[in-house]
Design goal:
This protein is an alpha/beta fold and 427 residues long. Helix content is 40%, strand content 17%. It has 2 domains: 3-222, Mur-like, catalytic domain (UDP-N-acetylmuramoyl-L-alanine:D-glutamate ligase, 3-Layer(aba) Sandwich); 295-424, Protein-Tyrosine Phosphatase, Chain A (Alpha-Beta Complex), CATH 3.90.190.20. GO terms for molecular function: ATP binding; dihydrofolate synthase activity; metal ion binding; tetrahydrofolylpolyglutamate synthase activity.
Length: 427
């Protein structure tokens, strides 16, 4: 199947699939020969930090000579980014070729009158076929949402379950309390695996510990307060933790925590027999790149892009701004989806700003209208103006900023790629 035809086929699935639960994807995978059963997984769940932790682990494992697979959600710049082998996106040709057996299986399911999978479930199944064909090991698999009922949780051959920072998000699907959300995410922990997490709020940590105890799974709780930091700057952080000394180049106050979780994951993998030398750890961490999280797009004026789309991530963004840009004049570009806790995000970040421009992607039905967002933001900061689209928002940001000021765009990962391209075109 041609790549574009394959994309259109998956997009059509919005009309017929999408019920919660794993029934549909299990039937699809059964028809495909259950390719996931021949793979070994590092399964990653959490509200924030999944991508960064996955990136650290991916770079280290590739340094150690492993042919990694990686399934990423959401993507920033390119649709094919979601399925990677050895750090390279799946090719258009391979994507089309993988879609042929998937489409044939889906047509069989239609004829049988069976419940049909969602686009995300189809992409997940396609990725398993691809990773098996490319002989990837291990596969770093990010949950789309939650854990217990996420499409990725059809797997049973988990080597390592990684639980990153857990906070309130997607409450309509995952539960109304932190404990309920943590229990959902802890659903990725499988018998016979190992598990790592960061220090969580007590309610969340208790659920993760209970899940590990119930399944007799060893758990490491990585505490970043035990790290010894030698250097901390916007371009470089060097620290020691757990016998490792590494340098990272991902900025942000939260990256120390993400890096420590990844180090704990490496230790757990070593215990299970994975061959990872300390030189692989050092090189992998130093080379890790991951965009959309406190990403510096340019200087003079500074332009920072951050995907913060929930209160926990907003708090981490606030901390990073204070760490690197104390005393600087701040211009915020804020756009968000309707279903997010945008008033709480605004309450955390809006008081910091000197000027705020609200923005939206008009073609995205999930986007909160810029005018509606501006009304919410004015509760905490009167210096608000609206923009017609992302390009207009970026233009206004640069008009408001002096050379030494800081522009920060945040609220969703969905527009990160567009913002990056727009900023790159500004002389």
């Amino acid at each position: 199947m041609e790549y574009q035809k394959a994309r259109e086929y998956i997009d059509e699935a919005h009309r017929f699939g999408g019920k919660m639960g794993l029934g549909a994807i299990r039937k699809l995978l059964l028809r495909l020969g259950n390719p996931q059963e021949d793979l070994k997984f590092i399964h990653i769940a959490g509200t924030n930090g999944k991508g960064s932790v996955g990136a650290y682990l991916d770079y280290v494992l590739r340094q150690a000579g492993y042919r990694t697979g990686r399934f990423v959600s959401p993507t920033l710049y390119e649709y094919r980014e979601r399925i990677q082998c050895g750090g390279e996106y799946i090719s258009r040709e391979d994507f089309g070729a993988m879609m042929d057996p998937v489409a044939a299986a889906l047509e069989e399911m239609k004829r049988a009158g069976e419940e049909l999978p969602s686009p995300f479930e189809i992409e997940t199944a396609l990725s398993f076929l691809y990773f098996k064909e490319k002989e990837c090991s291990p596969v770093l698999l990010e949950c789309g949402m939650g854990g217990q009922n996420d499409a990725t949780n059809v797997i049973t051959t988990t080597e390592l379950a990684v639980l990153t920072s857990v906070s309130m998000d997607h409450m309509e699907y995952l539960g109304g309390t932190l404990g309920e959300i943590a229990a959902q995410k802890a659903g990725i922990i499988k018998p016979g695996s190992s598990a790592v997490t960061c220090r969580q709020l007590p309610e969340a940590e208790k659920e993760i510990e209970n899940a590990c105890r119930r399944l007799d799974v060893p758990l490491t709780v990585a505490d970043c307060s035990q790290a010894e930091v030698y250097e901390a700057g916007i371009r470089c952080t060097r620290f020691s933790w757990g016998g490792h000394t590494v340098t990272i180049h991902l900025p942000g106050a939260h990256q120390l925590q993400n890096a420590v979780v990844a180090l704990a994951g490496i230790d757990a993998l070593r215990t299970r027999g994975w061959q990872i030398g300390e030189e692989h750890v050092a090189r992998g961490f130093a080379e890790t790149v991951w965009n959309g999280r406190f990403t510096i797009l340019r200087e003079r004026p500074w332009f920072v892009l951050d995907g913060a789309h929930n209160p926990d991530a907003a708090g981490k963004l606030q901390e990073s701004i204070r760490m690197y840009f104390a005393g600087k004049r701040l211009i915020f570009l804020f756009g968000v989806y309707k279903d997010k806790q945008y008033e709480k995000i605004a309450s955390i970040l809006a008081p910091m700003a000197d000027e705020i421009v609200t923005m939206e992607t008009p073609e995205d039905p999930r986007a909160l209208p810029a005018r509606e967002l501006a009304e919410a933001v004015r509760q905490w900061n009167p210096h608000v103006q609206t923009s017609e689209n992302l390009k207009d928002a970026v233009r206004r940001g640069f008009e408001l900023a002096r050379e030494e000021d800081v522009i920060v765009a945040f609220g969703s990962l969905s527009f990160a790629g567009d913002i990056t391209r727009i900023v790159a075109q500004i002389p």
